[in-house]
Design brief:
This is Holliday junction branch migration complex subunit RuvA. With 219 residues, the chain is α+β, with helices and mostly antiparallel strands. The protein has three domains: 4-64 and 140-144, Beta Barrel (OB fold (Dihydrolipoamide Acetyltransferase, E2P)); 66-136, 5' to 3' exonuclease, C-terminal subdomain (DNA polymerase, domain 1, Orthogonal Bundle), CATH 1.10.150; 169-214, Ubiquitin-associated (UBA) domain (Helicase, Ruva Protein, domain 3, Orthogonal Bundle). The chain has helices at 32-35, 66-75, 83-104, 107-110, 118-127, 132-136, 169-180, 185-198, 204-215, and strands at residues 4-12, 16-21, 24-29, 44-54, 57-63. Strands 1-2-3-5-4 form a five-stranded mixed beta barrel.
Length: 219
């Protein structure tokens, strides 16, 4: 399994790039959101990857964060969502957008992706709702990943990557705190997602307070 790839960006097409690693070119499919943030041809690039194995084809899909990679894998587990639809969703609203939409049950945000209808979007929101807390608590970009790359370039070089906004670290801490208070993971994730949407730069205490207000009984 190729989980991460680093090398020289040779060329880009509409939906994929070719990365040269020690003289071997790897075709990696990426979303539109990632494509626009990649470095110029000839420069170094690194991506987390997921390998899709089919009877007659092998395809690598590239991501700048572990959160995005994990959502791709989970999205494809839903009936009606293949690799193309998953990449369309991630390219349209991004990994954080997917986390927020699924935690809040906002299927309309998912349906904005090309090729994803309302019924399929609703299925995604329902089937993956319980997965949202653990994914929202994840973090990590390519530059932050520890250990050696699965495939490395011959000559170490500064790696440029898409300017992806990192997840608010307070989000994971707030989810943990609410879990310790006895709130169900799904309810906690929905409240935290809504709180983060209202104030993306909030620290942990602010997120907890905002989430608790949202979780408080109404009336």
């Amino acid at each position: 399994m190729i989980g991460k790839i680093a090398g020289r960006l040779e060329y880009r097409s509409t939906d994929h790039v070719l990365i040269d690693v020690r003289g071997v070119g790897y075709i990696v499919y990426v979303s539109e959101r990632i494509m626009v943030g990649l470095p110029a041809n000839g420069e170094q690039v690194a991506l987390f990857t997921d390998l899709l194995v089919r009877e007659d084809n092998l395809q690598l899909f590239g991501f700048t964060t572990l959160v995005e990679k994990e959502w791709h894998r989970l999205l494809m587990s839903v009936q009606g969502i293949g690799a193309k639809a998953s990449m369309a969703i991630l390219g349209t609203i991004g990994a954080e957008g997917v986390s927020r939409a699924i935690a809040l049950g906002d299927w309309s945000a998912i349906a904005k992706a090309k090729g994803v209808g309302p019924k399929t979007a609703q299925r995604v929101a329902i089937e993956l709702k319980d997965k949202a807390p653990s994914i929202m608590a994840m973090g990590g970009t390519v530059a932050e990943a520890t250990g050696d790359a699965v495939i490395e370039p011959d000559t170490p070089a500064p790696t440029r990557r898409a300017p992806v906004r990192q997840a608010n670290p307070a989000q994971a801490e707030a989810l943990s705190a609410l879990g310790n208070l006895g709130y169900a993971p799904g309810d906690a994730a929905s409240a935290v997602a809504e709180a983060v949407g209202a104030n993306p730069d909030a620290d942990t205490p602010d997120l907890i307070r905002a989430a608790l207000k949202l979780l408080a009984p109404k009336g």
